[in-house]
Amino acid sequence: MKGKSGAWAASKENLRYAEIVESSVKSSGELYRDGLGMIASENIVSPAVRDIVVSDLHGRYAEGLPGKRYYQGCEDFDTIEALGIELAREVFGASFANIQSISGTVSNIGALKALAKPGDNITAVSTADGGHISHARMGAVGLRDLTLTTYPWDEERMEPDVDAACKTIREVEPKVALFGQSVFLFPTPMKEMAAAAKEVGASVMYDGAHVLGLIAGGQFQDPLREGADVMTGSSHKTFPGPQGGFLLSSSEDPAFHRKLNNAMFPGVCSSYHLHHVAGKVMALAEFKEYGAAYAKDIVANAQAFAAALAGEGFDVLAESRGYTASHQVLTRHGELDSGAGAKAAQKLEQAGIITNMNMLPGDTKALAPSGLRLGVQELTRVGFTTDDMQDVAKFYARVLLHDEDPARVKTDVNQLKSEHQIIRYCFNENERSGYPE
Length: 437
Hints:
43% of the residues lie in helices and 15% in strands. It has two domains: 50-286, Type I PLP-dependent aspartate aminotransferase-like (Major domain) (Aspartate Aminotransferase, domain 2, 3-Layer(aba) Sandwich); 291-418, Aspartate Aminotransferase, domain 1 (Alpha-Beta Complex), CATH 3.90.1150.10. The chain is globular and about 60 Å long. The two termini are 34 Å apart. A hairpin with a 4-residue loop joins strand 7 and strand 8 (159-160). The longest helix has 39 residues, at 274-312. Helix 3 runs parallel beside helix 10. It is α/β, with parallel strands linked by helices.
């Protein structure tokens, strides 16, 4: 209805909706500000990136490439995107970079569009062994109508069985041999499997979504030098930017570059969220300066955390290999398909520790798995050290092994987190809190 001032007054019902949204956003921010965010696929952005993400760019379009647009008013964004392409090529050691993707999954869909046709064969890691859902028939592989064969898996080493996988590749003769995982503890032994793929004329694709920051920081592996033709990834996990993705290649072939660009636009993106693209560019600039130190500290924290959990009595996977070489730690909390991982995650949340249940090798029920997948990249971003990881492991033990009241543990969790509120590894890190007020 129209008020006396002539302005349209909002109804009480719609105002209530607005209040619910505002309250829920505030509550979510407080949850992560005061608690321990340990979901392996998440991170927080720097204040500089956040300022860009909430800029006017959020509602603008720039279809095409720098200098070749379908709209006017894109000159400033051309400058941003061209700089981002240059930085991405440098940071990732790539000959080609497209920074338009709005997620890691969209990067995968674009890559598969460029590399394969419907009906072609593809090999990848099974979701049961840690492969991402986009590598499966339920995701991007199914969307592109590709015929999937999964690699035999070495459960002890938590990686494809190299000899058996090479045999599979030679037998299947895939159009694309896809590597990389969602559960990702150790570098993929790429060289031999990539060589087998090249023998049968397959393109080699590496999904580095989880470990992209570790790769760029020189702390994991270097897929583009180990046989990958294309590397995809997310811009918001161990690479600490806004939500989005990357599409990268080692190829020097301009025709292949055009194919990859066309697969992204108009292939899978129209508007590609200019505010997030600009945020990626700022994150790339920050990563160029601080990324190597950040990646090194992530891996050190993950290894310290895994060892501390094992010392408390938890069943931490891959003990024989030192538990992890990434940001991730995997723990088993009961029998296969028992739902023990889900129950553990719920109890930890009551203590202010945010995790996710996860299938481990042998599990078949995604909503009732036996394990947790834990990540330390967000804690590292706000200054947690290897010494702090000992304290975090003790919180887990108090909740899950000693049955202490989660509310009591939460008080200590909040106290520890209150000492870590400044984002590190970014420009002007001491000027503002890492968490929105």
